User: Fold this.
Amino acid sequence: MSRTPEKQGELFIVATPIGNLADMVPRALDILQNAQLIAAEDTRHSGKLLQHFQIDTPLVAYHDYSDAAKLRQLLARLEQGATVALISDAGTPLISDPGYRLVHEARLAGIKVTPIPGPCALIAALSASGLPSDRFSFEGFLPAKQGARTAALEALALDQRTLIFYESPHRIEDCLADMAAAFGEERPVVMARELTKTFETFLRGTLQELIAQVAADPNQRKGEIVVLVQGYRAPHNAPDITEAARRVLMILLEELPVKQAASLAAQITGEKKNKLYQWAIGRSVDP
Ligand code: SAM
Assistant:
């Protein structure tokens, strides 16, 4: 006896514009128009976008902190064969935006999940930054508290990949200052602001230069911002040391002369004293 296969539900992860509505891709419009349900981070915000494109698909709120019942309801709809589109306020869902729990659970339940690619601030910023794009690490938003932020930056100080951060305008000055402390004032950085919008701006320079530019121009403290930092480049002739040794040495260098700091760091970490000394000297000449 042949059975008609049950209709399969499908979850579409749909990217939406990050400022310029002309960036909405035709395939996204088609999916949003024809889905049975759109799950959105903020239904009021997304309602305006959908209204602009004359899409009247029913909207429900979803974020990763939604109660378990909400998540189960969405999964149940998918399991019953519904087509659901997930969108966030802007850009690609799940990228510093809700959606991870839903996609994870949908995959566990064997539901088909399909991406509809489109705008994403980090990729737009990287593609036009002029910084190496072959290897990069997206770090999202740094912690709001300075201690945690400094610790997070310190842990990245020797990372050779281009580092990409989202940052809010009211924290940008503190963020750049903490980056200068962790990475050295000479580290090249790019600040991409208001991408795809009227006041799109790319500032490029060393951390020291950008700190001065942002302090001098209040407009640079407005809007939406992506900060991209060039990865660590070993100073000329400086030896490679382990991340643990670097961290210990950096702490000791704040309190002690180089020789003493290198000697103590060697005892603590087992790294060679001379190597640490050479690294510290190289670092102080060319951070
Ligand atoms: N899901 C989004 C994406 O795909 O890029 C990111 C959402 S996250 C909540 C918002 C942050 O992304 C902003 O604070 C800013 O750092 C960055 N961002 C979003 N739109 C931007 C734009 N037009 N220009 C620069 N940065 C933007």
The radius of gyration is 24 Å. The pocket of S-adenosylmethionine is lined by residues 18-19, 88, 90-92, 95-97, 120-122, 166-168, 192-197, 224-226 (CB under 6 Å).
